[in-house]
Amino acid sequence: MTPSGAVTTAYISFGSNLGDRHATLAAAYKALTIGPAIRPLRASRLYETAPVGGPGGQGRFLNTVLAIETDLEPHALFARCMAVERQFRRERKIRWDARTLDLDVLLYGDDVIRTADLEIPHPRMHLRRFVLVPLADIAAEAIHPVLGESVKDLLARLAVEPGDVYPIADTWT
Q: Is 114 among the catalytic positions?
């Protein structure tokens, strides 16, 4: 629980580019939000996106962002995300390689956390259209607590590459 027992709004990104991507994301949503500690608020549209970094030849990703309320402290929320990734057989052999499931805590209230195992806000979120586009669907006015800028302003500065991010479904859960 958070130190004060307070409820915090957080944003989690979901991504998959192996197997039945849509089914994986829907099942991961259910696995993450089971029980009272994580309550879903809003989900972005589902986007198909080009892979960024990592080995060549990867398939396209499905990406989305979920807004939640939680009374878990940030490290406990991160641990829960990692447990769900393991449930879906996420392997970490090569950085940015293809994966069945990727869950990232993007924002946790207006907290800034820098530890060996966790960085919030996510350290590269402001550089990634595949994160900012779905996040803007549900929290365009959210402020990046380090950069002091809104999600929509951060997104407006990123170049649009042909075919990098496009919506494929209004709902995915």
A: no
